[in-house]
Write a structure and sequence with these properties.
lyase activity; EC 5.4.99.18; 6 helices; mainly alpha; binds 5-O-phosphono-beta-D-ribofuranose
């Protein structure tokens, strides 16, 4: 994430990965305040064994795109809701990548963070049958938890 202030949003991704028993790490890496850290993190990610990067940032959210420019790992971008523009700035900063350097962009805020984790799990599950089973169980439990009427639950 681009700042510790992004953690309330990105924590949703971390918690979702924990629920699915997907090993992960959380780091603060700012495209603007810590560019050298960003370079080291993104360019070294594959060699460290990372498989997917979830990059969340707000405002002038250059973190996901810059990370994607330095790795061919899948990069999933989460637009953090900004106070001034409600995350529309973050969304547009992340989604409008030039052709050739992809960032899979999720929804603004909590839903985007959760879905980034689920999408990362789906990618990893392609080569991890046990994770695929856990993911299917997660979705089945989610479906079962939806009440059919407003009186239920
Ligand atoms: C972005 O600026 C961060 O991703 C964060 O969403 C936003 C504000 O950062 P702080 O000023 O709260 O550290 O780089």
């Amino acid at each position: 994430m681009g700042s510790r202030s992004d953690w309330p949003t990105l924590r949703e991704a971390a918690e979702t990965l924990t629920r699915l028993s997907v090993p992960h790490e959380a780091r603060v890496v700012s495209a603007h305040r810590t560019p050298d850290r960003l370079y080291a993190y993104a360019s070294g990610a594959a060699a460290r064994g990372l498989k997917v990067i979830i990059a969340g940032a707000g405002g002038a959210a250059h973190l996901p795109g810059m990370a994607a420019s330095m790795t061919t790992l899948p990069v999933l971008g989460v637009p953090v809701e900004s106070h001034t523009l409600k995350g529309l700035d973050s969304l547009l900063s992340i989604v409008q990548m030039p052709g050739g350097v992809p960032v899979g962009t999720l929804a603004i805020g909590r839903a985007g963070a959760i879905n980034a984790a689920l999408l990362a799990a789906s990618i990893l599950a392609l080569s991890d049958p046990a994770l695929a089973e856990r993911l299917a169980a997660f979705r089945a439990a989610q479906t079962a938890a939806v009440p059919e009427t407003v009186e239920d639950g």
